[in-house]
Amino acid sequence: MFVSAEIVAIVISALGIVLTLGTTMLAGFAWCVRRIDAVDEKLSVRIEGLDHRLTARIDKLDHRLTARIDELDHRLTARIDTVIDDTTALKIAVARWEGPVRHLVLPGH
Prior knowledge:
86% of the residues lie in helices and 0% in strands. The protein is mainly α. The N and C termini lie far apart (145 Å).
């Protein structure tokens, strides 16, 4: 079988172009992956720092809110106890004012 020199040159040129493009694309992809990893590391460090700072702030706010809620709970409990005592005293006063329950007594019996 006879192959002309031009066809061999075209095949070799096509293989060269495919290999060059493939190598360039592979190198570009490797550069992109390396760049993404570098950015990912920087972002991970920043996110960790923000996470620690936000956790500290949330814990501080949690302690402050817990203290305020406890204070309000004690104040409201004292007020409710006062209202219960006043209501009980009012019930006793109304019962004394009305006197005992009167029974129905019909005349002639």
